[in-house]
Amino acid sequence: MQHQVTRSVLAFVPDALSASQVGTWTTDVINDRTVCDAAAAALFGVDPNLAAEGLPLAAYARVIHPDDRAGFHDKLNRVREHGGLFVVEYRAFPAPGDRRWVLARGRYERDDRTGGMTGRGIVIDITESKLDGRAEDRAFFIAEEDTETPLERAAACAIQTRQAIDEFDGPEGLGLRRSVDALLLALGRALARRVGASEP
User: Fold this and answer.
1) Does 71 fall in a domain?
2) Does the residue 199 lie in any domain?
3) Cβ pair 122, 106 in contact under 8 A
4) What's the whole-number mean pLDDT along residues 96-123?
5) Within 10 Å of residue 118's Cβ, how many Cβ atoms?
6) For residue 120, what is the DSSP state?
7) CB of 89 closer than 8 Å to CB of 126
């Protein structure tokens, strides 16, 4: 099945943006277009309207800490080429003097019809959790084979739920987004803890 790039409803609501720690993204690898919601755009310091239309990966990666950038590209390129799941942490500077720790979780799949690779996932602002002296502990996980755990399946379903809610125009939308963001944040942290515990 071909995945359509989801264009989130990005009504820019400043208080919702500042409160949100979870953003969603969808990538078309062949065309190098990554579409993000407003929360993800804020984590990378990009205009939310441009992010809603789709930007090249370089527009987001430019704010990644120089010491993390090469490793980020190396790991991401591997999963973008072969497909599969990944969890990775890195530092980002969305604005001068504003350092953020970001946890990214996603899955890349090849379209059987076009042969193109598409990805979707979440980015989570985990800066507060790094203030307890655990800044050097980083989650990193790539699985090229299809070995999703129940926790990973739950995260995938929550990502799809969030993207569907972004397309919902009703007055309940903001409350629903906050609820699913809380679930995504909890799932992302659980995945990071699980990966960290499994590393040697």
Assistant:
1) yes
2) no
3) yes
4) 87
5) 22
6) E
7) yes
Range of the domain at 75: 14-194
Per the structure, how many domains does the chain have?
1
Cβ(139)–Cβ(191) below 8 Å:
yes
Amino acid at the residue 177: R
Residues with Cβ within 8 Å of residue 194, at least 6 apart in sequence:
151
Rg of the chain over all Cα atoms, to the nearest angstrom: 16
Q: From residue 26, how far is each of 60, 105, 128, 177 by CA, in Å?
A: 13, 12, 25, 17
Q: Which range, 61-70, 139-148, 169-178, has the best average confidence (pLDDT)?
A: 61-70
| Position 79 in a domain | yes
Q: How far apart are CA 82 and CA 103, in angstroms?
A: 21
**Burial of 194: CB neighbours in 10 Å, binned 0-12, 13-18, 19+:** middle
The pLDDT of residue 50: 95
Digit-coded pLDDT (tens) for 162-177: 778 877 777 887 788 8
